[in-house]
Write the C-alpha cells for this entry.
Amino acid sequence: MVRRTEKGTAKGTSRAPRRTDGLSREVIIQAATDLLDAGGESALTLRALTVHLSTGYGAIYHHVADKGDLLAAATDDIIACVLTDVVVDADPGAALRRVAVGLFDAIDAHPWVGAELSREPWRPAMLDFYESIGRLLHALAVPERARFDAAGTLVNYVLGVAGQNAANARRRAHGDLDRAAFLDTVAAQWAQLDPGRYPYVHAAATNLREHDDREQFLAGVDIFLAGIATLG
C-alpha cells in the first residue's frame, strides 16, 4: 500500500517544480514561439506550454484565451519586429525592399507565420504590414488609383513566395533529400524534356539547379519596383 504524505502526494514521488517568478503575456507568447519554431503548429498545445513554463493551466488562461489566441499573438509579435525599423526615409524604394525581404526572412525563420497570415489576413500584424506598404507606395508617388492594386500585388507576392519556400522546406525535412539534391533531381528531369515542346523550361534547368531562393525573391521585388516606377 502506498503511503501518503500530509499533502496527499505519494511518498517517494515529486511534482515538477513550479516557477516562482511572475508570468506575463509576453513570456507566454515567447514560449509559444519557441514551441512553434521547434515543432510547428502541432507542437503548440496548452499541455506543452505548461511544461515549458513550469506552471499550471490557470496561470496561462489568465493571460490568453486559447491556442488560437496564442498563435495569433505570436504572429503579430514576429511581424511587429519586422516593421520596427521601417520608415519613410529619403529612399522609400529601399525601405519598401527592406520590409518585403524582412517579411520573407521572418516566414523563412518561422514557417508557421505564413500559414497564420494567410488564414487570418485581418490580423493587426497584416493590417500594419499593408499600412507600411501603402505609405511607402505613396512616398514613391504611385497614383492613388493604382496604389491598392500595387499594394495587393506586393503583399501577395511576398506571402506566396515565402509560404511556398517554407512549405518546400517542411517537405524536405520529412524526406531524404536536402535542397541541393532536390533541385538536382528536378533540374535533371527538366533537362530531359523535349526542347521543341518546352524550350524555356529545358534551357532553365541549369538556372534551377544553381539559383538562390532569397536572391530570386529580391529580383522579383526589384521587378515590382521597376514596374511601379512607370505608373503615372
Residues 1-16 have pLDDT under 50 and may be disordered. The chain has twelve helices and no strands. The first helix runs from residue 25 to 39. The chain has two domains: 16-64, 65-228.
